[in-house]
Write a structure and sequence with these properties.
- This protein has about 550 residues and is mainly beta.
- Helices cover about 10% and strands about 40% of the residues.
- It contains seven helices and 32 strands.
- The strands form six sheets. Strands 1, 2, 3, 4, 5, 6, 7, 8, 9, 10, 11 and 12 form a twelve-stranded antiparallel beta sheet that branches. Strands 14-15-22-17-20-29 form a six-stranded antiparallel beta sheet, covered by helices on one side. Strands 13-23-16-21 form a four-stranded antiparallel beta sheet, with no helix packed on it.
Length: about 550
């Protein structure tokens, strides 16, 4: 009876009798301690392991931050994430610790004077080696991995990343970690924690981009060109230099079965006239460019009083994703939508701490059109060697106002092509042209299907030339249920094209222009545009932004 009473007391008050420890760990990469790191602090006794950090324990951690509590009595662990000053979430895992398996090796070594053994495991194709000791009658580790081996004093992943103990000390008691009032499932927990690590600016949500007289503006979103353009004003917070900025667009057909040109763009308003004026008052109010071929091109090049749009991302819709998924083919499971996502960090100075007009365009003549959602996300970087840059919008022949009469980019049928002059008030170093180009003309001899060289001239001298061409279009077949199939076994969406594929983003090309002195400069684009046949014609959508220090 006496032994039974002692056992009960030990179970109930075990933490009072067991020794408490604090272990400090530091991380190394390729044999070098990581600069400016927040040391991992692990608090342990016989019943519990707490994984936290120095900054968290001292109340100086930056949101969000995460802590882990291992309960040895139930062989489970809880993860607690503090997302901000008013939101804490928690999730419990009762299965993972019991499922861990290790290969026990004969290697031994001493760490901080303790005799250590070695165990190895594979996690997501990563080889993880753990050095643990049984010299102390406690168990724990700096991560959930290896919690039941003993006291893990070193974790080595793939031989190039190490978490190693630097100090083991006895303490009076374990700190108290405040848990959330409600426990949520692990998948929801991970999603909420992930989303709290960056800033999301919603731009459009389930927005219809179609061609219809019924497409009207509302208090927050302006509609133009019979609904093929949507524009709204949004506030962008200050973006720290070196941060990563992404844009994303999710698209599905809402009736239109064809591959269409799309653009997610920004409207500069720093000069007397802007593209927004053309949207509101008609395309004829925009500055005209002509090169002698008999056509007037509205709002495509920078002038003293006007800047063209800045294309954040050029994308192309597939053939009827979602709406036409009923067109079944054996062994083909069509996608439900297409996600376009691109890094636009190089455009930080145009976005940071500003109210900006952001728009989206999909050229189509369908009443149902397309359904899209779009966001801008900002991802903070702690340290960076990035140098601040200046941006000068130069040209954009992508006729965003196509359905309101803006001319197609057919100026390359003239030897002059596209030419723009610009003035720099100050010298710019390490200049690059952010250049997006795609060829169009959807018949066998059209420039969409015929490779054509693009040549760039700076101040009258050839600077760069290349032939923009995509040969990977067949990779995106599952986005294209309504793509036409041909007798040779190919589908329309399979064919190579002039730098675009149905269902993809067209990436910018960055062309080095060197250092530019203050004063006037000229830039010219030449492309051997193909001749029209009947009512069919070729055109080129090119846009360019000068980026420099």
């Amino acid at each position: 009876m006496k032994k039974l009473l002692i056992s009960i007391l030990l179970f109930v008050f075990g933490s009072s009798f067991s020794q408490n420890y604090k272990i400090t760990y530091l991380k190394s990469s390729n044999g070098t301690l990581i600069d400016g790191q927040d040391p991992i602090w692990v608090f342990i006794n016989a019943n519990e392991t707490q994984i936290t950090s120095q900054s968290i324990s001292n109340g100086k951690a930056i949101y969000p931050f995460e802590q882990t509590i291992v309960d040895r009595r139930s062989n489970s662990f809880s993860q607690i994430a503090v997302l901000n000053s008013s939101s804490t979430i928690c999730s419990k895992d009762s299965l993972s610790l019991a499922k861990q398996s290790f290969e026990y090796l004969n290697d031994t070594k001493k760490i901080l004077g303790y005799n250590c053994k070695k165990a190895k495991t594979i996690v997501n194709s990563n080889t993880v080696e753990l050095w643990y000791t049984n010299d102390i009658n406690i168990k724990g580790a700096p991560t959930p991995l290896g919690q039941n081996l003993g006291l893990v004093l070193e974790l080595n992943r793939n031989g190039n990343f190490v978490i190693a103990a630097t100090k083991v000390e006895k303490i009076k008691s374990l700190p108290v970690i405040q848990k959330a009032k409600q426990t949520i499932d692990l998948l929801t927990y991970k999603d909420l924690l992930w989303k709290s690590r960056f800033t999301t600016i919603p731009v459009f949500k389930n927005q219809i981009i179609n061609f219809s007289d019924a497409s009207k503006s509302n208090d927050s979103i302006l509609r133009f060109a019979n609904g093929t353009i949507a524009v709204r004003k949004i506030k962008i917070p200050e973006i720290k230099l070196g941060s990563q900025i992404f844009v994303d667009v999710s698209e599905q057909s809402n009736g239109d079965a064809y591959d269409r040109t799309g653009s997610f763009f920004m409207i500069p308003t720093d000069k007397a006239t802007s593209f927004l004026d053309g949207l509101k008052n008609g395309v004829k109010t925009l500055p005209i460019y002509n090169n002698g071929n008999g056509k007037d091109y509205q709002g495509i090049v920078a002038t003293e009083n006007y800047n063209p749009i800045v294309e954040l991302m050029r994308f192309y819709t597939p053939f009827g994703v979602k709406q036409y998924n009923t067109l079944q083919l054996k062994d083909k499971t069509w996608a439900e939508n297409v996600l376009y996502r691109q890094d636009v960090s190089d455009l930080r100075t145009e976005l940071s701490n500003q109210e900006v007009w952001i728009g989206i365009f999909i050229g189509n003549y369908d009443k149902g059109g397309h359904k899209i959602s779009a966001n801008i996300t900002i991802h903070l970087e702690e340290e960076t060697k990035v140098i601040a840059t200046h941006i000068v919008p130069l040209f954009c022949t992508n006729n965003i106002m196509e359905m309101a009469g803006q001319e197609y980019g057919t100026m390359f049928n003239n030897d002059k092509g596209l030419a723009v002059t610009f003035n720099l008030e100050k010298p710019m170093k390490n200049c690059k042209l952010r250049y997006i180009t795609t060829g169009h003309g959807g018949w066998e001899n059209g420039d969409e299907f015929v490779p054509k060289k693009n040549t760039i001239y700076l101040d009258g001298k050839e600077t760069f030339s290349f032939t923009p061409w995509r040969q990977d279009c067949g990779s995106y077949r599952l986005y294209n249920p309504a793509s036409g199939n041909f007798p040779n076994g190919l589908s329309s969406s399979d064919y190579s094209r002039a730098n675009w594929c149905p269902g993809t983003v067209t990436n910018p090309v960055f062309i080095d222009l060197g250092n530019l002195e203050a004063g006037n400069h000229s830039l010219q684009i030449k492309i051997p545009q193909g001749l029209p046949e009947g009512t069919s014609f070729s055109s080129w959508n090119v846009s360019g932004i000068l980026i420099g220090e």
